[in-house]
Specification:
The complex is a heterodimer. Chain A is mainly α. The two termini of chain A are 27 Å apart. Chain A contains 6 helices and no strands. Chain B is α+β, with helices and mostly antiparallel strands. Chain B is 38% helix and 14% strand. In chain B, helix 2 packs across helix 5. Chain B is globular. The relative contact order of chain B is 0.16. The chains are: A mainly alpha, B alpha+beta. At the A-B interface, helix 2 of A face strand 4 of B.
C-alpha cells in the first residue's frame, strides 16, 4: 500500500513544459485533433479549478507507468459531488471508440508527460471498458 | 469537408470541419433545434442526444467520431402530431417550466428507458444526474419518466 501511495503522491510527477494544442484544419494526428476539438476547452482553458479542467501535466494518471487510470477516467468522467462544490468531467463513454481512445491517450502521454509511450495501451482498453460497464459507471 | 451522419434513421450529408461539435451541425446545418447550447463544456446536459443507445453531450462531441454511428435527437422520437410515449408523458405531467433543459432530460431518459424498461426512482435520479435544471422542475421530470415507462409498457401490451 505504501509503495502504491508513494508512487502516486511522491512529489510532483515530472512536470513537463508543453505548448498549447493548436491544430489547423486537416493537420495533426487523430489524438491531437480529438483533444483540440473536445478536451482543450477545459484542460487548456483559462478557468481555474473547479470550473476549468486540471492541468494534465500534473496528472499522476497520465504520468503513471500503466495507462489503466487514464483508460478508466476518460470514458467515465468524474461525476458531480453531492452537496458541495467540486470539479466534474463529462462522460465520454458513449462518444469514443476504443481505437480513438487509444489515439487520444497516446497523444496526451507524448504531449503532457516526458515518460515513455505506454506499450500496453491498445490491448488494455477493451477489458478495462468492459469492467467499467459492469460496475455501472458511468 | 463533407461527411455523412446518420441522424434519426436518415443519412445526412454535412459539409463541416471534422472538429465541429455535433451540436452545431445539428442546429445550424440540419436545423434540428431540440438540443440546446447551455454551457458548451459537457457540464449541463441541455445538448444531450443519444448515440448508439447511449446519452452523450453533443457540445463536446466532434463529428469526426461519428462515422457509422446512429444519432438520435428528440425530433427522432415523435412529432407534435404523434408524440412518443416519453413525449406524451412529459406533456401529461406538464414537466417543463422554461423548458431549456427538457430536450436533454428527455434524451437522457430515453437512453435509460432503452436499457431499463421499468426504472426505480433511484435509477431515474442516478441516470438524470448529469443534466441540470435551474427552474426546479425535477419532481415533475421524475414523475414524467415514471409515466413514460408505464405508457411504453401499456403500448407494448396493446400491441400484443
Amino acid at each position: 500500500m505504501s509503495v502504491y501511495i508513494q508512487s502516486n503522491m511522491a512529489g510532483h510527477p515530472g512536470l513537463k513544459r508543453y505548448a498549447r494544442t493548436e491544430v489547423r484544419p486537416g493537420e495533426g494526428g487523430i489524438g491531437a485533433r480529438l483533444f483540440a476539438a473536445s478536451r482543450a476547452s477545459c484542460h487548456e482553458g483559462s478557468a481555474a479549478l473547479p470550473f476549468g479542467g486540471m492541468d494534465l501535466a500534473l496528472s499522476s494518471a497520465l504520468n503513471a507507468p500503466e495507462p489503466r487510470n487514464m483508460i478508466l477516467v476518460t470514458p467515465a468522467g468524474v461525476p458531480a459531488a453531492d452537496g458541495r462544490p467540486a470539479g466534474m468531467m463529462p462522460s465520454f463513454d458513449g462518444a469514443i471508440s476504443n481505437e480513438d481512445l487509444a489515439a487520444l491517450l497516446q497523444y496526451l502521454r507524448a504531449h503532457f508527460s516526458d515518460k515513455a509511450p505506454w506499450s500496453s495501451l491498445g490491448g488494455s482498453i477493451p477489458a478495462a471498458r468492459r469492467e467499467l460497464q459492469k460496475t455501472g459507471q458511468p | 469537408m463533407s461527411l455523412t451522419l446518420n441522424v434519426n434513421g436518415t443519412d445526412r450529408e454535412v459539409s463541416a470541419d471534422p472538429q465541429t461539435p455535433l451540436l452545431y451541425v445539428l442546429r445550424n446545418d440540419l436545423r434540428l433545434n431540440a438540443a440546446k447550447f447551455g454551457c458548451g463544456l459537457g457540464q449541463c446536459g441541455s445538448c444531450t442526444v443519444v448515440i448508439d443507445g447511449k446519452a452523450v453531450t453533443s457540445c463536446t462531441l466532434p463529428i469526426m467520431l461519428l462515422k457509422g454511428r446512429r444519432i438520435t435527437t428528440l425530433e427522432g422520437l415523435g412529432s407534435p402530431q404523434r408524440p412518443a410515449p416519453l413525449q406524451q408523458a412529459f406533456i401529461d405531467m406538464q414537466a417543463a417550466q422554461c423548458g431549456y433543459c427538457i430536450a436533454g432530460m428527455m434524451m437522457r431518459a430515453h437512453a435509460l428507458l432503452m436499457s431499463v424498461a421499468d426504472p426505480s426512482d433511484a435509477e431515474i435520479r442516478a441516470a438524470l444526474e448529469p443534466n441540470l435544471c435551474r427552474c426546479g422542475t425535477h419532481m415533475r421530470i421524475i414523475a414524467a419518466v415514471r409515466r413514460a415507462s408505464r405508457l411504453a409498457h401499456k403500448s407494448r401490451e396493446d400491441a400484443r
